[in-house]
Design a protein that fits this description.
Immunoglobulin-like; 11 strands
Amino acid sequence: GYRVSLQGNFFGRNHKHVTFPVYNPRKHIKLDPPLNLQSNATASKCQIWWSVWNVPWYLVEILQYELQYKEYSMSWEIALNKTPSSSLPQIEIEATELHSGIAYVARVRCKVSENENSYHSQWSEWSQTTVFQRADVPKLSEKILNTTTQLLFIPLSFGILLYFFWNCKLSSSCFLTLGQKVSPALTFPRQLLSFSHSIVCTMGISR
């Protein structure tokens, strides 16, 4: 610990003021703000991550963060706050918390966890911001149409193939049946013989 005092000359007289009788630096920490804040938004959630620098290794694992985000056109005074559940420099925002087609901006700050007894700090300054926007969600009707098309494509294709196969088989059976009842090979010679007999009779009369 240290003893911190202020001393100065006022109106020709020296004055001394003891600010901290016992000052322990580990109880008065102010960290640098996080940096490299990045985001990636999808239709289901937005992932935001960052990094810290100039922080001793023994403090990295006991840090806590606070994320603040808002609509891009709104004031920070009405921003929403989120606190990660772990000391990892990342957080997720569910898509249900975001409006489609609206741009958002976020920032983050850090300090030593309040659950830590050996160290104590105040919040750092806010980091630089990152801008993100939730991806559009496909319309429900389009989802249903695509799903229905996929479900019907295979059985419909199978039904068409079965239909053509059955028709071809039926046509072949009819052709064979008709060929047995009315055979061109049996009827054609009789017609030809009758026609030849008529010609012979005609020729005989003319003679």
